[in-house]
Amino acid sequence: MLTVFSLKGKTALITGGGTGIGFGIAKAMLEAGARVIIIGRREETLQQAQQELGGDVHYFVFDLANTESIPELIDRIESAVGPIDILVNNAGVHLKKYALDTSDAEFEKIIQTNVISVFSLSRSCAAKMVERKDGVILFIGSMTGMFGMDRVSAYGTSKTALTGLMQNLVTEFSKYNVRVNTLVPGWIESPMFFKAIGDDPQRKEKIVNRIAMEGFGKPEDVGNAAVFLSSQAARYITGVLLPIDGGATVNF
Q1: pTM recorded for the entire structure
Q2: Is Oxidoreductase set as a keyword in this record (predicted)?
Q3: Is the pLDDT of residue 116 over 80?
Q4: CA nearest neighbour of 165 among 129, 121, 132
Protein backbone atom coordinates (compact mmCIF):
# COMPACT_ATOMS: atom_id res chain seq x y z
CA MET A 1 0.00 0.00 0.00
CA LEU A 2 2.77 2.46 0.88
CA THR A 3 4.22 2.22 -2.63
CA VAL A 4 1.37 4.32 -4.05
CA PHE A 5 2.61 7.23 -1.91
CA SER A 6 6.21 6.85 -3.13
CA LEU A 7 7.84 9.46 -5.36
CA LYS A 8 10.79 7.24 -6.22
CA GLY A 9 12.07 8.00 -9.71
CA LYS A 10 10.30 11.37 -9.81
CA THR A 11 11.92 14.80 -10.08
CA ALA A 12 10.28 17.69 -8.24
CA LEU A 13 10.97 21.39 -8.86
CA ILE A 14 10.09 23.58 -5.89
CA THR A 15 10.25 27.35 -6.09
CA GLY A 16 11.27 29.12 -2.91
CA GLY A 17 12.40 25.75 -1.60
CA GLY A 18 15.17 27.12 0.57
CA THR A 19 13.08 28.23 3.55
CA GLY A 20 9.75 27.87 5.32
CA ILE A 21 6.97 25.94 3.64
CA GLY A 22 9.06 25.37 0.51
CA PHE A 23 11.79 23.73 2.56
CA GLY A 24 9.18 21.56 4.30
CA ILE A 25 7.85 20.41 0.94
CA ALA A 26 11.35 19.71 -0.34
CA LYS A 27 12.15 17.65 2.75
CA ALA A 28 8.96 15.60 2.52
CA MET A 29 9.40 14.90 -1.19
CA LEU A 30 13.02 13.91 -0.68
CA GLU A 31 11.97 11.49 2.07
CA ALA A 32 9.33 10.07 -0.31
CA GLY A 33 12.11 9.20 -2.76
CA ALA A 34 12.04 12.11 -5.20
CA ARG A 35 14.98 13.95 -6.68
CA VAL A 36 14.51 17.56 -5.58
CA ILE A 37 15.39 20.82 -7.32
CA ILE A 38 15.00 24.08 -5.41
CA ILE A 39 15.18 27.52 -6.95
CA GLY A 40 15.36 30.95 -5.39
CA ARG A 41 17.08 34.32 -5.57
CA ARG A 42 19.69 33.87 -2.83
CA GLU A 43 22.44 31.33 -3.48
CA GLU A 44 23.60 31.27 0.14
CA THR A 45 20.11 30.28 1.29
CA LEU A 46 19.88 27.57 -1.37
CA GLN A 47 23.30 26.19 -0.51
CA GLN A 48 22.40 25.98 3.17
CA ALA A 49 19.11 24.25 2.35
CA GLN A 50 20.91 21.78 0.09
CA GLN A 51 23.31 20.90 2.91
CA GLU A 52 20.52 20.53 5.46
CA LEU A 53 18.38 18.42 3.17
CA GLY A 54 21.19 16.14 2.00
CA GLY A 55 20.49 13.44 -0.57
CA ASP A 56 19.67 14.07 -4.24
CA VAL A 57 19.11 17.83 -4.08
CA HIS A 58 20.02 20.39 -6.74
CA TYR A 59 19.58 24.15 -6.77
CA PHE A 60 19.39 26.92 -9.35
CA VAL A 61 19.62 30.64 -8.60
CA PHE A 62 16.85 32.47 -10.43
CA ASP A 63 14.53 35.44 -10.00
CA LEU A 64 11.05 34.42 -11.13
CA ALA A 65 10.24 38.05 -11.94
CA ASN A 66 12.40 37.50 -15.02
CA THR A 67 9.59 35.69 -16.82
CA GLU A 68 11.15 35.97 -20.29
CA SER A 69 14.02 33.71 -19.17
CA ILE A 70 11.83 31.00 -17.62
CA PRO A 71 11.70 28.76 -20.74
CA GLU A 72 15.51 28.81 -20.93
CA LEU A 73 15.69 28.00 -17.20
CA ILE A 74 13.46 24.93 -17.62
CA ASP A 75 15.52 23.73 -20.59
CA ARG A 76 18.69 24.17 -18.52
CA ILE A 77 17.26 22.30 -15.54
CA GLU A 78 16.01 19.38 -17.63
CA SER A 79 19.34 19.14 -19.48
CA ALA A 80 21.31 19.14 -16.24
CA VAL A 81 19.06 17.10 -13.93
CA GLY A 82 16.34 15.40 -15.98
CA PRO A 83 12.63 15.75 -16.83
CA ILE A 84 10.54 17.64 -14.30
CA ASP A 85 7.67 15.43 -13.14
CA ILE A 86 6.35 17.65 -10.36
CA LEU A 87 6.22 21.45 -10.17
CA VAL A 88 5.47 23.13 -6.85
CA ASN A 89 4.78 26.86 -7.24
CA ASN A 90 5.65 27.83 -3.70
CA ALA A 91 7.55 31.13 -4.08
CA GLY A 92 5.55 34.22 -3.31
CA VAL A 93 5.64 37.63 -1.67
CA HIS A 94 3.37 39.09 0.98
CA LEU A 95 2.08 42.59 1.62
CA LYS A 96 0.33 43.61 4.82
CA LYS A 97 -1.26 46.96 4.12
CA TYR A 98 -4.69 48.53 4.13
CA ALA A 99 -6.24 48.77 0.65
CA LEU A 100 -6.47 52.56 0.83
CA ASP A 101 -2.72 52.72 1.48
CA THR A 102 -1.71 50.20 -1.21
CA SER A 103 -0.25 51.78 -4.33
CA ASP A 104 -0.75 50.49 -7.86
CA ALA A 105 2.94 49.61 -8.01
CA GLU A 106 2.71 47.54 -4.82
CA PHE A 107 -0.41 45.75 -6.06
CA GLU A 108 1.24 45.02 -9.42
CA LYS A 109 4.34 43.62 -7.74
CA ILE A 110 2.27 41.10 -5.78
CA ILE A 111 0.33 40.05 -8.90
CA GLN A 112 3.54 39.79 -10.93
CA THR A 113 5.24 37.46 -8.45
CA ASN A 114 2.28 35.46 -7.16
CA VAL A 115 0.28 35.06 -10.38
CA ILE A 116 2.09 35.99 -13.59
CA SER A 117 5.37 34.29 -12.67
CA VAL A 118 3.44 31.22 -11.52
CA PHE A 119 1.60 31.09 -14.83
CA SER A 120 4.81 31.51 -16.84
CA LEU A 121 6.62 28.75 -14.96
CA SER A 122 3.62 26.41 -15.06
CA ARG A 123 3.24 26.97 -18.81
CA SER A 124 6.88 26.14 -19.49
CA CYS A 125 6.81 22.99 -17.37
CA ALA A 126 3.39 21.94 -18.65
CA ALA A 127 4.55 22.12 -22.25
CA LYS A 128 7.02 19.33 -21.54
CA MET A 129 4.64 17.40 -19.28
CA VAL A 130 1.99 17.43 -22.00
CA GLU A 131 4.49 15.98 -24.47
CA ARG A 132 5.34 13.20 -22.00
CA LYS A 133 1.65 12.79 -21.05
CA ASP A 134 2.48 12.83 -17.35
CA GLY A 135 2.96 15.47 -14.71
CA VAL A 136 1.78 17.22 -11.56
CA ILE A 137 1.50 20.96 -10.97
CA LEU A 138 0.81 22.28 -7.48
CA PHE A 139 -0.14 25.82 -6.54
CA ILE A 140 0.18 27.17 -3.02
CA GLY A 141 -2.91 29.09 -2.02
CA SER A 142 -3.75 30.87 1.23
CA MET A 143 -6.47 31.40 3.78
CA THR A 144 -6.75 34.89 2.26
CA GLY A 145 -8.05 33.20 -0.88
CA MET A 146 -10.75 31.37 1.09
CA PHE A 147 -12.24 34.27 3.04
CA GLY A 148 -11.74 38.00 3.47
CA MET A 149 -9.07 39.45 5.74
CA ASP A 150 -8.08 43.05 6.34
CA ARG A 151 -4.74 44.48 5.14
CA VAL A 152 -4.09 41.78 2.50
CA SER A 153 -6.14 42.97 -0.49
CA ALA A 154 -3.27 42.52 -2.96
CA TYR A 155 -2.01 39.24 -1.53
CA GLY A 156 -5.51 37.80 -1.10
CA THR A 157 -6.42 38.75 -4.67
CA SER A 158 -3.30 37.02 -5.99
CA LYS A 159 -4.08 33.80 -4.13
CA THR A 160 -7.73 33.84 -5.19
CA ALA A 161 -6.58 34.22 -8.80
CA LEU A 162 -4.68 30.93 -8.53
CA THR A 163 -7.96 29.10 -8.03
CA GLY A 164 -9.26 30.39 -11.35
CA LEU A 165 -5.97 29.54 -13.05
CA MET A 166 -6.02 26.01 -11.64
CA GLN A 167 -9.59 25.36 -12.76
CA ASN A 168 -8.88 26.49 -16.32
CA LEU A 169 -5.62 24.55 -16.61
CA VAL A 170 -7.46 21.42 -15.47
CA THR A 171 -9.79 21.72 -18.47
CA GLU A 172 -6.81 21.86 -20.84
CA PHE A 173 -4.26 19.49 -19.29
CA SER A 174 -6.31 16.60 -17.89
CA LYS A 175 -6.50 14.75 -21.20
CA TYR A 176 -2.70 14.63 -21.18
CA ASN A 177 -2.58 13.12 -17.67
CA VAL A 178 -1.25 16.35 -16.18
CA ARG A 179 -2.94 17.06 -12.86
CA VAL A 180 -3.25 20.52 -11.28
CA ASN A 181 -4.16 21.03 -7.62
CA THR A 182 -3.84 23.71 -4.97
CA LEU A 183 -2.59 23.32 -1.43
CA VAL A 184 -4.06 25.92 0.91
CA PRO A 185 -1.89 26.28 4.00
CA GLY A 186 -3.46 27.78 7.07
CA TRP A 187 -1.24 29.50 9.59
CA ILE A 188 2.00 27.58 9.27
CA GLU A 189 5.12 28.28 11.29
CA SER A 190 7.45 30.05 8.86
CA PRO A 191 9.52 33.26 8.67
CA MET A 192 6.82 34.94 6.53
CA PHE A 193 4.09 34.07 9.03
CA PHE A 194 6.02 35.14 12.11
CA LYS A 195 6.92 38.42 10.41
CA ALA A 196 3.26 39.04 9.59
CA ILE A 197 2.05 38.60 13.17
CA GLY A 198 5.18 39.68 15.06
CA ASP A 199 4.05 43.24 15.71
CA ASP A 200 0.32 42.57 15.79
CA PRO A 201 -0.80 40.71 18.95
CA GLN A 202 -4.49 41.35 18.23
CA ARG A 203 -4.20 39.69 14.83
CA LYS A 204 -2.36 36.74 16.38
CA GLU A 205 -5.13 36.30 18.97
CA LYS A 206 -7.77 36.43 16.24
CA ILE A 207 -5.91 33.76 14.25
CA VAL A 208 -5.50 31.48 17.27
CA ASN A 209 -9.22 31.72 18.01
CA ARG A 210 -10.07 30.91 14.40
CA ILE A 211 -8.14 27.62 14.30
CA ALA A 212 -10.24 24.65 15.42
CA MET A 213 -7.27 22.42 16.32
CA GLU A 214 -4.54 23.27 18.80
CA GLY A 215 -1.60 25.42 17.69
CA PHE A 216 -0.16 26.39 14.33
CA GLY A 217 0.73 24.04 11.50
CA LYS A 218 4.26 23.06 10.56
CA PRO A 219 5.95 23.10 7.13
CA GLU A 220 6.05 19.30 7.08
CA ASP A 221 2.23 19.24 7.32
CA VAL A 222 2.12 20.99 3.95
CA GLY A 223 4.97 18.82 2.69
CA ASN A 224 3.12 15.60 3.47
CA ALA A 225 0.02 16.87 1.66
CA ALA A 226 2.17 17.81 -1.34
CA VAL A 227 3.61 14.29 -1.43
CA PHE A 228 0.11 12.81 -1.42
CA LEU A 229 -1.18 15.00 -4.27
CA SER A 230 1.97 14.26 -6.30
CA SER A 231 1.79 10.50 -5.83
CA GLN A 232 -0.16 7.72 -7.51
CA ALA A 233 -2.42 7.68 -4.45
CA ALA A 234 -3.96 10.86 -5.90
CA ARG A 235 -3.87 9.78 -9.56
CA TYR A 236 -7.60 10.58 -9.99
CA ILE A 237 -7.54 13.88 -8.12
CA THR A 238 -7.25 17.15 -10.03
CA GLY A 239 -8.72 20.63 -9.64
CA VAL A 240 -9.04 20.55 -5.84
CA LEU A 241 -8.29 23.04 -3.10
CA LEU A 242 -6.85 21.16 -0.13
CA PRO A 243 -6.77 23.23 3.07
CA ILE A 244 -4.06 22.31 5.58
CA ASP A 245 -5.43 24.62 8.22
CA GLY A 246 -6.45 22.79 11.39
CA GLY A 247 -10.09 23.48 10.54
CA ALA A 248 -9.75 27.27 10.27
CA THR A 249 -11.86 27.57 7.13
CA VAL A 250 -14.88 25.94 8.76
CA ASN A 251 -14.49 26.97 12.39
CA PHE A 252 -16.69 29.62 13.97
Answers
A1: 0.95
A2: yes
A3: yes
A4: 121
